Amino acid sequence: MASDVITSSLYATGHDIPAADLCPDAGSGMRLLILVTSAPKNKDARMAIRQTWGNFGARRDVSVGYFVATSADLETQRLLESESALYGDIIRANFLDSYLNLTLKTTSMLEWVDTYCPKVRFILKTDDDMFINVPRLLTFTEEHLGEKRTIYGRLAERWIPIRDSRSKYYVSAKQYNDSVFPDFTTGPAYLLTSDTVHDLYETSLNKSYLPLEDVFITGLVAQDVKIRRVHAQEFLNQRIPFNGCNVQKGISIHRINFPEQFDLWKRLLDGRIICNV
Fold first, then answer.
1. Is 210 within 8 Å of 103 (Cβ atoms)?
2. What local confidence, expressed as pLDDT, does residue 2 receive?
């Protein structure tokens, strides 16, 4: 994709399933909104989260939603709409769900928060193959309540674009010509203060499109609007050994399949584990 393709020319605004009830009173009084990017067909992953760490969405100050785009398969669309009617926690954007559209998906997520939930304090963007330690995350937000215009996560510093066209992460010189990316927080999970959302959304629409959503949103766009990116060691964003202290100390563990969510949930709740957090 050439560098002169502006994001707004690819983007479809709005949400045909808005799930606005996820955020009563525009998020006033809400501490944390967790938005989980998911493929339409990944119902098992969503169900595992609902039955484990997604349970924290029952708190008055926490909400958990699942962010999808459309599927070309009509049966998948029908099943997703039934799931949405049952749980009321699915937000669907107005474009095709695909890997190359992940940047559009995060842009749509920012639009949704800007429209329906601007008064929430913090937003966690994460994926459906992640285990999130919500109690630890809430403690983290408590420790950073006064911070402004910041994105927290696993900071990638001075990463070099991959020019090998066989790579999933290939970026051509036309898409991005510099030799080093701006520092960014890696995509599996990052936390935004809500005062970042409007500027990130508006600015993203006017930039040349890059399909690497974390580089684009938390690197290029965040740099343009002078939003801090801060490394937080609790954001592991990788697969780690499933020992109890790893689970209890970290906020985000990556590459978790849906049966493993239950194992990690059990370890998180095990009161016999004593760790120096």
1. yes
2. 43
Please state, as a whole number, how many other Cβ atoms lie within 10 Å of the Cβ of residue 8: 13
Domain containing 236 equals: 7-268
Question: Which CATH number is 262's domain given?
Answer: 3.90.550.10
Inside any domain, residue 84: yes
The region that residue 142 occupies, defined by phi over 0 for left and psi between -120 and 50 for alpha, beta otherwise, is alpha
120 lies in some domain: yes
End-to-end CA distance of the chain: 45
**Cα 57 from Cα 52, distance rounded (Å):** 10
Note the pLDDT of residue 246: 85
Cβ atoms of 189 and 117 within 8 Å: the answer is no
Range list of H helices, the chain: 7-10, 43-50, 74-87, 102-116, 134-143, 197-205, 213-214, 222-224, 244-249, 258-269
For residues 170 and 166, give the distance between their C-alpha atoms in angstroms, rounded to a whole number. Answer: 7
Give the chain's domain count. Answer: 1
Residue 258 resides in a domain: yes
Instruction: Specify the pairing of strand 228-231 against strand 150-156.
Output: parallel
Sign, Cα dihedral of 129, 100, 189, 119: negative
Q: Is residue 1 part of a domain?
A: no
Instruction: Kindly list the averaged pLDDT for each block of 10 residues, start to end, along the chain of length 277.
Output: 79 98 97 99 98 97 99 98 98 97 98 99 98 98 97 98 93 92 98 99 97 98 99 94 86 96 93 72
Beta-strand (E) ranges in the chain? 15-17, 32-37, 62-70, 90-96, 122-127, 131-132, 150-156, 184-193, 228-231, 252-253
